[in-house]
Structure formats: C-alpha cells, structure tokens
Specification:
Elements (H helix, E strand, L loop, with lengths): L3 H10 L3 H10 L4 H11 L23 H15 L10
Helix pairs in contact: 3-4
C-alpha cells in the first residue's frame, strides 16, 4: 500500500481528472487518506491558525503515515475545539 504522501504527490503530478479519479478509486480503502481529505476539506472544521510554514512533501518519508495520523488527531482534538490556543498551538 502506498503512503499518503506518495498518493498526494501522484495526484499533484497529473492534471487529468480521469487519472485522479482512477487513483482515488484504487486507494478508496485507505482510511488515513480519507481522514486527510475530510480534515482539510470540511468547511465546518476550523483550526484558528493564521500562518505557519508548511513543510515540503519531499521532506516526508513513507514511514510518516503514523506521524500524519498523530497530527490529524492533534488538530481535530486540540485545535478545532480550541483546547490549545495562542502560541501553544
């Protein structure tokens, strides 16, 4: 199974809608990928963060799926409900 970063890089690599649909259909069983899309695409989830430096995709390794999962847990359980705010966030 491909890592989430690999799948996202493949999505970015080709502008074809059909390619993207086929790729997403192929990885439709990837629960972490689903969580990523729901977390970033849900208009009702707000993280109350203004700006931060985004790491480049090339700085991730395939083993980072666990890190991504932990990050999603943190932002949905701490930032969105405002349990962590200000500089601590």
């Amino acid at each position: 199974m491909s890592s989430v970063i690999d799948i996202l890089e493949l999505l970015e690599s080709d502008n074809s809608r059909l390619f993207k649909e086929e790729l997403l259909e192929t990885h439709s069983g990837n629960d972490l990928l689903k969580r990523v899309f729901v977390t970033v695409g849900d208009p009702y989830i707000n993280f109350y963060v203004n700006k931060f430096k985004m790491p480049t995709a090339s700085s991730f390794t395939p083993e980072d799926d666990a890190v991504i999962s932990n990050f999603l847990d943190f932002i949905t359980e701490s930032l969105s409900p405002r349990r962590v705010t200000g500089n601590a966030a």
